[in-house]
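tool=predict chain=A
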Amino acid sequence: MHGPVSAAWLLVALCGATGTYCLLRLRSGVEEQRRAAGGEALMGFGMAVMAVPATVFTPPRWAWPLYAAVFGAAALWALWTARGGLRHLHHLVGSAAMVYMAVAMAGAPPAAHHAHGGGGVPALTGALLLYFTGYVLLAGALLVPAAGAAGPAGPVSWGDRPELARACRLSMGIGMVAMLLTM
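tool=predict ok
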């Protein structure tokens, strides 16, 4: 991805921390937390790797098709699990966006990874930006506690805290918006 180096490092840190927390959620006692955590960890770490500034590391040309294949497989898995509920469709859109960005990076000349283009926003990038911006706004609103809402009755482990899981999803949505803006 191209853009300011300091913003790229912040995105790497945000997505890496999110991926790490999602790995912790894999140990949750709540099955629903474990089920979503693996895909979200993959997304967090994948976004972190993609956001590393090109001045530090430029992946070889063969890495982008591999990246697209990994997230293509994640998109197929999300499509399969979406049969059980619409909540999984967000994972499908996120994985498809990662495939889209990897294909765009594979097709771009190496110099394009370092400079902004001036040709306008492609329709798919614009649609993904609209989707993830809406998702971020909705996820942010859902983090605000309802008036009179009570917290958990007893101690809850780090992997079982739904508000932290929502915060991670929010941060990955923000990261996706940032990455799409740099395309």
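Residues 5-144+159-181 form one domain. The chain has one domain: 5-144+159-181.
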